[in-house]
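Here is the promised in-class demo. Please do not try to memorize the tokens; focus on the logic of going from shape to residues.
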């Protein structure tokens, strides 16, 4: 299913795609999640002129963005589920009330000998099922509120006071027709791997420069007999005695420098492989999120049709009841079935919004990579 989506072509940029989605989710949640992006200004501070330190610092800051994104996504998913639970709880109580009315009517008809006891037992079963479902949803609501409070660093009272607006879910988010491949650069984990590779490449360059002599010409001033050919051909001990701390040459440390270069070069290759692995994993997550989104939309549309059919049956039953052509029990039965379908619709809507969050997270949550490095040459 995921192969239907073209991730390679030119399409919406990351911010063009994510900004409306994030705005809708913020409105849905009722408060702005603390996430999604670190400012370029704050990411650039304190890194200093050293490119190695800058790469490691930006990788570390991108790792912070990964943690923030995962935290915000968890909070969003818990809040989405809480909204669905509250809606399902309302509908469960409604079904319990309808089933209770059906039970009363069935008992009256059974007592008069009009009906058997089967409708009575059916209504009793429905009342108990709705009551148990409502109790379970109440427990889940309390658990979700406590978890959201814990994730937000608040106490249980804060979670219990969270207001969830009725029918807070939008009808649907539009499914993007195309997503440019470079949007994956807005994932903080991709930025982490890329900065790690850049830092490793910089270490290779530093290790290479250690093979060149670092001569302090001022320290050599005054030696009138200085002869550069003799300098590089003379035995090591006299040279070092004469040069002191002013000179470090690979002729004395060549083995150690070669080992250092091989080590940092191997680190670089490992970092590049890790980056490629993270990139492929990110691509798979985007494809999975798109497939989940499309499946959620199809399920939502199917359930909307089921609700529309149940609502049409209820309206027809009301007309028949108004004309005296059916009984009150028939009308209540249609109301009960509509409440069941609406409860399923609430679940489908929550799944659809959860799919939107999954895609938002898979695309980086709007994260802006700090001064994305030019990817190093693999020939290092």
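The designed amino acids, position by position:
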């Amino acid at each position: 299913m995921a192969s239907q989506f073209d991730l390679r072509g030119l399409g919406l940029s990351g911010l063009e795609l994510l900004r409306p989605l994030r705005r809708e989710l913020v409105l849905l949640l009722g408060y702005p999640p603390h996430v999604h992006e670190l400012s370029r200004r704050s990411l650039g501070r304190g890194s200093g002129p050293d490119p190695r330190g800058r790469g490691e610092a930006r990788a570390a800051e991108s790792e912070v963005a990964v943690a923030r994104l995962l935290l915000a996504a968890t909070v969003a998913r818990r809040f989405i589920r809480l909204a669905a639970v509250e809606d399902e709880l309302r509908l469960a109580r409604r079904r319990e009330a309808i089933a209770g009315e059906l039970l009363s009517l069935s008992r009256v008809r059974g007592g008069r000998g009009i009906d058997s006891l089967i409708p009575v037992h059916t209504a009793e079963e429905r009342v108990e099922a709705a009551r148990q479902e409502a109790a379970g949803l109440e427990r889940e609501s309390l658990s979700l509120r406590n978890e959201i409070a814990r994730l937000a660093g608040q106490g249980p009272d804060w979670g219990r006071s969270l207001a969830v607006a009725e029918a807070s879910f939008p009808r649907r988010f539009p499914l993007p027709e195309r997503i440019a491949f470079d949007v994956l650069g807005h994932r903080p984990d991709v930025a982490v791997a890329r900065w790690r590779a850049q830092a490793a490449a910089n270490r290779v360059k530093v290790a290479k420069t250690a093979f060149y002599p670092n001569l302090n010409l001022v320290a050599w001033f005054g030696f009138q007999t200085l002869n550069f050919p003799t300098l590089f051909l003379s035995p090591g001990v006299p040279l070092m005695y004469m040069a002191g701390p002013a000179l470090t040459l690979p002729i004395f440390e060549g083995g150690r420098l070669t080992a250092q270069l091989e080590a940092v070069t191997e680190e670089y290759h490992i970092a590049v492989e890790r980056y490629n692995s993270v990139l492929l994993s990110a691509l798979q997550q985007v494809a999975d999120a798109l497939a989940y989104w499309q499946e959620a939309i199809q399920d939502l549309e199917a359930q909307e049709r089921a609700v529309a059919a149940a609502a049409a049956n209820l309206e027809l039953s009301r007309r028949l009841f108004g004309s005296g052509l059916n009984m009150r029990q028939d009308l209540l039965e249609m109301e009960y079935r509509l409440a069941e379908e609406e409860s399923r619709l609430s679940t489908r809507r929550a799944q659809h919004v959860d799919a939107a969050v999954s895609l938002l997270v898979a695309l980086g949550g709007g994260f802006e990579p700090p001064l994305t490095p030019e990817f190093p040459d693999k020939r290092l």
